[in-house]
Design goal:
Strand content of chain B: under 5%
CATH superfamily of chain B: MetI-like
Number of helices of chain B: 12
Distance between the termini of chain B: 33 Å
Helix content of chain A: 10-25%
Structural class of chain B: mainly alpha
Order of helices and strands of chain B: HHHHHHHHHHHH
Number of strands of chain A: 21
Oligomer: heterodimer
Low-confidence stretches of chain A: 1-8
CATH superfamily of the largest domain in chain A: P-loop containing nucleotide triphosphate hydrolases
CATH class of the largest domain in chain A: Alpha Beta
Distance between the termini of chain A: 39 Å
Shape of chain B: globular
Helix content of chain B: over 70%
CATH architecture of chain B: Orthogonal Bundle
Number of strands of chain B: 0
Number of domains of chain A: 2
Number of helices of chain A: 10
Shape of chain A: globular
Number of domains of chain B: 1
Largest sheet of chain A: 6 strands, mixed
Radius of gyration of chain A: 22 Å
CATH class of chain B: Mainly Alpha
CATH architecture of the largest domain in chain A: 3-Layer(aba) Sandwich
């Protein structure tokens, strides 16, 4: 058994598709983990929604193998389980609640039809309703709910069927910024408290940073990268696709508060960062994003600068960005990887090459949860 | 109304209501699969079938009635078939009248239903499928309830249109008192016989009926949810 086979053995979801659409040809061969959130990330037209619909059986790719936890949902033309026979939950971009039923009956619609099999995840509906904070809404009509509330009900309804796989197609895209912020924590709680795997489609980098355990980057129907989120995010090439959203994701622990300046020091595998004190308690684990566009590089330790976060790093690799004037530089900082987007002229004039020690100046650090 | 309506006219009112009621019920059943198919299919047959369903909208009723008479009559293909089956010919019978009304009012049932099925889109059906509902289950528990306003419109229009038919009834029904004579043909009969008072009574009743239908329809369009709940 090779290493790759062993890794694949632990990845019980297979999605292999060849599907020609008018805008792109979807051609993927993925093995995905059976726990946590797998984010399918890509711009519109990358094929991520089509991929999700094929997994659900809402679209039928002529050549496809879809296997989930050992059961075959599709095998080319010979096996094709219709959607209603697949033990999945699906959350659409728009909440799509049944307008003729109230909230409780919307949720019960899935509950009464889901057949809890021996290996069902045995999600307690009461706890889901509790978890999503909708217990007070059960007797309302969908028209009497806010967009965010509707989407939370749609998630509860999808979970009521005891799915073995939860599919979410940009569940936050139809909501405004405030509503998105309202739902994101609920999704994080679902990830932490439910044991079922989720496939989550999005084009928003902040959702990747906040929710992803495993990340698949799609570009015009092809997989540019697939792997644990921290690995994928610190590799350069798929990140070029992310454009302005390229950046490193770091797990940090709150170390110290500077009350007089309202700042907080957080430690990560590679150094310390100062950021705005948002009231996190000492010892709290959090995720922060350092966007590539907020990182600049100096070959000597900068002095007399307003930048508060300056870290010693080693240049790992350099790639030309989609725009040739820009370069994306991968920096190793202790055990962590940072990315810097600088001009290609700066790369040349500083003489940056792999293995060179440099200083990373970080203009901004964003706390994601 | 018996004070100023003779016995025969009262009879025609009952025949009319029976005809319109039966036609409406049968039409809703018949039109459902046709409307569903027209709303969902991508087949090349969609346009010709849709045109055929809509044909009674533009076809002169007497033409429709004439062909029905020829087809259902004792020497027509359908007439021969029904006679061979021991059912006799449907020409000049109440059954023949129902068949004629079904065809004549078909577009008034199909089009509101088709609109309702199209308006709901694929999404509710897809949602139901992801919640483990079989296609039949989905139709009964999602599509039908969501199409309720369409069914109400279809029922009202089919009923009203059947009540108002004249040409088809005259051709296929034969205007037999107590069997196939309806209000519209009775009014004509009264006028022919110079019985203007009787004609007035029936005509005024029809006017009131039609106005009520339009009133209800307009009101439904403005606020369909209130009328349906």
């Amino acid at each position: 058994m090779t290493n790759i086979d062993r890794v694949r053995g632990a990845l019980p979801i297979q999605v292999t598709l060849e599907f020609a659409r008018s805008e792109f040809v979807l051609n993927v061969d993925l093995r995905l983990p059976g726990t946590g959130i797998t984010v399918l990330f890509g711009t519109s037209g990358s094929g991520k929604t089509t991929l999700l619909r094929c997994v659900a059986g809402l679209e039928r790719a002529p050549r496809a193998i879809v296997t989930v936890n050992g059961s075959e949902w599709q095998h080319d033309g010979s096996v094709f389980l219709p959607t209603w026979r697949r033990p999945l939950g699906y959350v659409f971009q728009e909440p799509s609640l049944f307008a003729h039923l109230d909230v409780a009956r919307n949720i019960r619609y899935g509950l009464s039809r889901g057949v809890p099999s021996a290996q069902a995840s045995s999600i307690s509906l009461d706890s889901v309703i509790e978890l999503l904070g909708i217990s007070g809404l059960l007797h309302r009509k969908p028209t009497e709910l806010s967009g965010g509330e509707r989407q939370r009900v749609a998630i509860a309804r999808a979970l009521a069927t005891q799915p073995q796989l939860l599919l979410l197609d940009e569940p936050l895209a139809s909501l405004d910024q405030a509503r998105r912020q309202e739902i994101l924590p609920w999704l994080g709680r679902l990830r932490d408290e439910l044991k079922i795997p989720m496939l989550y489609v999005t084009h928003a980098a902040d959702e990747v940073a906040r929710l992803a355990d495993h990340l698949v980057v799609l570009d015009r129907g092809r997989v540019r990268a697939s792997g644990p989120v921290s690995e994928v995010l610190s590799a350069i090439n798929p990140l070029v696709v992310l454009g302005d959203d390229a950046g490193a994701l770091l797990e940090v622990r709150v170390a110290e508060h500077d009350r007089s300046w309202k700042l907080v020091r957080v430690a990560f595998l590679g150094g310390d960062l100062w950021l705005r004190d948002t009231g996190l308690p000492p010892g709290q684990i959090a995720r922060v994003r350092v966007l590539a566009r907020d990182v600049s590089i100096a070959t000597e330790r900068p002095t007399h600068t307003s930048i508060q976060n300056i870290l010693p790093c080693v240049v790992e690799s350099i790639a030309t960005d989609l725009e040739e004037s820009q370069s994306l530089v991968q920096l190793r900082c202790g055990e962590s990887i940072l990315l810097a987007r600088i001009t290609s002229r700066a790369v040349a004039s500083l003489g940056l090459i792999g293995g060179m020690p440099v200083w990373a100046q970080i203009k901004a650090v964003v706390l994601v949860d | 109304m018996t004070a100023w309506l003779d016995h025969e006219s009262v009879e025609t009112v009952f025949v009319t209501l029976k005809l319109a009621g039966l036609t409406t019920i049968l039409l809703l059943i018949l039109a459902t699969p046709i409307a569903w198919w027209l709303a969902r299919t991508k087949s090349a047959w969609r346009v010709p079938i849709a045109s055929m369903v809509a044909l009674p909208l533009v076809l002169p009723p007497t033409v429709l009635g004439f062909y029905l008479l020829v087809t259902l009559g004792p020497n027509g293909p359908m007439g021969q078939l029904t006679q061979a089956m021991g059912l006799g010919s449907f020409a000049f019978t109440f059954t023949g009248l129902v068949i004629g009304s079904l065809i004549y009012s078909l577009p008034f049932a199909v089009q509101p239903l088709q609109n309702a099925f199209e308006a709901m889109g694929e999404r509710p059906l897809e949602v139901a499928a992801t919640l483990r509902a079989s296609p039949w289950d989905t139709f009964l528990t999602v599509a039908l309830p969501l199409a309720r306003p369409g069914y109400l419109t279809a029922a009202i229009l089919s009923f009203a249109h059947t009540v108002g038919e004249f040409g088809v009834v005259l051709m296929i029904g034969g205007n037999i008192p107590g069997k196939t004579r309806v209000v519209s043909t009775q009014i004509y009969g009264h006028v022919e016989a110079m019985e203007y008072a009787q004609a007035h009574a029936l005509a005024a009743g029809m006017l009131l009926f039609s106005f009520t239908i339009m009133l209800v329809m307009t009101w439904l369009n403005r606020n369909p949810m209130r009328a349906l709940s």
